[in-house]
Amino acid sequence: MLCGLSLLVAAGFWWQGVVAVGFYTLLELVALGVALLIVARHAGDRELIMLCDRELTVEQRFGSSVEHSRFRAEWVRVEPLADDGSLVELSGEGRSVRVGRHVRPELRVALAQELRRALRLARAASEQVVDHELKT
Question: Terminus-to-terminus CA distance in the chain, angstroms?
Fold first, then answer.
């Protein structure tokens, strides 16, 4: 609709003899198209953190690239890089990944706390399973 309105205005000026408006309108529409392509490319950006069966999986999508990281829940350490709302670092087994890019900075501390709580529960559950296996 925006492009149609710009073209309509440009056609009106073109009809009146002001040819230069058509070229500027074309330049404007190309710039708008490039901007919309950039936005569309990053519309699906996300971070997905899953904790299943004593394994923490992090999937990060940025544009067309996808990165997967897997950690054993027993070995994951969760640390905010600083108290100023910076990204949360998950590390373990010699690897690390930073998460929280799509979370407001003031909520990243809460994200780190929630991850710690979930990992603690997973560790406790795995200890109970191991304890049960040892008794039987």
Answer: 70
pTM of the model: 0.68
Full DSSP string of 52-81? ETTEEEEEEEETTEEEEEEEEGGG-EEEES
**Rounded CA separation 83/122 (Å):** 26
Contact predicate 85/109, CB 8 Å: yes
pLDDT tens-digit series, residues 3-25? 888 889 999 988 998 888 889 99
- The strand pair at 95-99 and 88-92 is best described as antiparallel
Measure the CA–CA gap between 124 and 117, rounded to whole angstroms: 11
**Phi, psi (deg, nearest 5) at residue 44:** -95, 10
User: One-letter amino acid identity for 122?
Assistant: A
Contact 87, 101 (CB under 8 A): yes
Say which residues have a Cβ less than 8 Å from residue 65's Cβ, sequence separation at least 6.
none
* Token pair belonging to 119: 């990992």
